[in-house]
Amino acid sequence: MPEAYVLVVDDEPDIRQLVSEILADEGYEVAVAENAAMARQFRESRTPDLVLLDIWMPDEDGVTLLSDWMTAGNVSFPVIMMSGHATIETAVEATRLGAYDFLEKPLSLAKLLLTVERAMEHARLKQENTRLLRRVEPVVEPIGRSVAMERLREQARRLAQHDAGLLLVGEPGSGKEVLARYIHAQSSRRNGPFIDVGTGLLAHGSASIALFGKEDDGVVSRGLLEQAYGGVLFLDEVADMDDGAQSRLLSVLETQSFIRVGGTRAIPVDFRLIASTRKPLADEMRAGRFRPELFYLLSGLTLKTPALREHSEDVPELLNYYVDYFVSREKLPFRKFPVPVQNYLRHYAWCGNLRELKNLVQRLLILGSGTEITLDEVKAVLGEQPAMGDARSRVPDYYEMPIKEARDSFEKGYLEYHLDKFGGSVARLSNAIGLERTHLYRKLNALGIKFRDKKLDL
Ligand SMILES: Nc1ncnc2c1ncn2[C@@H]1O[C@H](COP(=O)(O)OP(=O)(O)OP(=O)(O)O)[C@@H](O)[C@H]1O
Predict the structure, then answer these.
(1) 34 CA to centre of ligand 1 in angstroms
(2) Which of 19, 30, 86, 405 could form a disulfide with 90 if both were Cys (CB 3.0 to 4.6 A apart)?
């Protein structure tokens, strides 16, 4: 761990020297400032882990400096006030402003060290608490400290300032939808809705009502395009749209309006379009499967989500994130990934990207026992899938089975994968994979797959 960095602010040279020597002996890194102006400069150039602040100083007193820091916000470090002749009121005022504690001069060195240690521990617990709270929330911003993820978030924040259509390209499960939501949350449309439209829906003729709404004898029901007014319309997997759906979408984008089913009046749209694709759209266009006009409208601004194997240094952080996530949200027992297991997983191919990692953690917490997760367990749950180098040289396990079992095994994996992708919704799954809903229910039951359904879960 890096040494904690303490800033000592006092106008008396003897106190500065004494306190800094004692703290340095204890292993702290210390900087000293002789007045408030210097303290401000130090704080600007590097945030301290703790500040010892004298109350009485000739130019500007410590309470004023503390008050300024607190008003500006973002004071992540504890502040311990020191004074030889402060009144009770001053001490109370400093505590009210947010000082951690108060030390009287002449300083007792034992008390000084104890108070500093306690303050550091308090700050550490506070940070840990904030970190845990952040982790239990659903993913609201792409996680990962790698250069690739830093760059992605930075580009996303920049693109959030524009209103032009945006195309997110990336492998399945690499976080395109999370990124789209992040961009929405950073944009001026953040208070507007985020409407997620599976393209399976667009391809489905009977879903026009869901998309465009309906007018019947003066009774109006608003479709998703209208619901997206003032916000973002997210089109998942645009490359999967059939020609009819492409032409409907193109017409909406070109005219910036549409007509409700059964209606006659053009209704204006106002949304930012964010589309996602796992297939290179240019290839789809060249192959004649994607309309060039739509391609040019969609691909003006493009952002790529990296595959997990391209930022594998984030794997340990993601594993820990999802352990905390499932422990707190699903009350699963806590288990830990020892470093050798983390290292193994850093070199794993992650064909299903973040979705695969999340599922792996969940399964290990459900299936396993014991605080430490072992390498053998991980390999068993991964089905001994290949590590990065030999990804193509292996065939799936079901290749070795009789054809009926192989088909069931494939269908089960395939349906579970897509069901998870659509949050367990059979309606969306049916649209996306083009299997009629009644038939799909039968299949899910026959394969013993659990599902949920909603009335209009598009
Ligand atoms: N940066 C991230 N950190 C942690 N989890 C993430 C991150 N990005 C996405 N996830 C999680 O990974 C899963 C897949 O993410 P998401 O649905 O955004 O991917 P996608 O690329 O849109 O997938 P698909 O193309 O299959 O629809 C989700 O459970 C999501 O919460």
Answers:
(1) 51
(2) 86
